[in-house]
Amino acid sequence: xxxxxxxxxxxxxxxxxxxxxxxxxxxxxxxxxxxxxxxxxxxxxxxxxxxxxxxxxxxxxxxxxxxxxxxxxxxxxxxxxxxxxxxxxxxxxxxxxxxxxxxxxxxxxxxxxxxxxxxxxxxxxxxxxxxxxxxxxxxxxxxxxxxxxxxxxxxxxxxxxxxxxxxxxxxxxxxxxxxxxxxxxxxxxxxxxxxxxxxxxxxxxxxxxxxxxxxxxxxxxxxxxxxxxxxxxxxxxxxxxxxxxxxxxxxxxxxxxxxxxxxxxxxxxxxxxxxx
Length: 276
Prior knowledge:
Blueprint: H1 2-18, E1 23-24, E2 27-28, E3 37-41, E4 52-55, E5 60-63, E6 69-70, E7 80-85, E8 92-96, E9 106-109, E10 117-126, E11 149-156, E12 165-173, H2 178-182, E13 197-200, E14 203-207, E15 212-218, E16 228-235, E17 251-260, E18 267-269
Parallel strand pairs: 3-9, 15-18
Antiparallel strand pairs: 1-2, 3-6, 4-5, 4-7, 7-8, 10-17, 11-16, 12-15, 12-17, 13-14, 13-16
């Protein structure tokens, strides 16, 4: 009787093992999923496995499987930031929209090179934590503000000093400028804000008028301190309709980096206006 029971148990275990499924990034290895997303290499077009995908506003994390596939198993009710990390690749982020959790998305990430500098890959909330529900992307803000001014040091080598250098802002949301309102990014109708200002080593180099991904700002060569630390500063905009106190425009941004050379497929921010 014991021998018979042992044989039955062995058969059941073999059957279970043969039909077991492996879960990676929420996708079953033997399950057909129509709305999965995919991480691929920008140039080789090959899938990138084991990439880390995060949606900070949702505390959501997933990893791509061997085919680069992953699922967004959390509701997306308004624009928010999705980030992708992978060893030997540039930090990547993008703004996703309402309903993108049920639509397939192809995410292209690019290999890093020796001259790329990651300034900061974390999500930063800038402002005073006082904002309207109609503010651009306010429903997806995560965490409390670090204040109205952001500073970050980074070292830059002079080896590649002959090439132009750019500050790349992976994603930025929450800007309530008139320009952002005109393009439908902000629903605030009773007020508007000045744009965030970007400084390099204390000198103003750009303003950011609209929300978006992969915005590039050229760094003036005369302001770069080669072979030493430099400082990037970002100041939050100010609500111009508030007269009783200083009301900062709350924004969030993620993935600041320095790139050298020129990539014509990427957007160059040329919004420096001395009048701000």
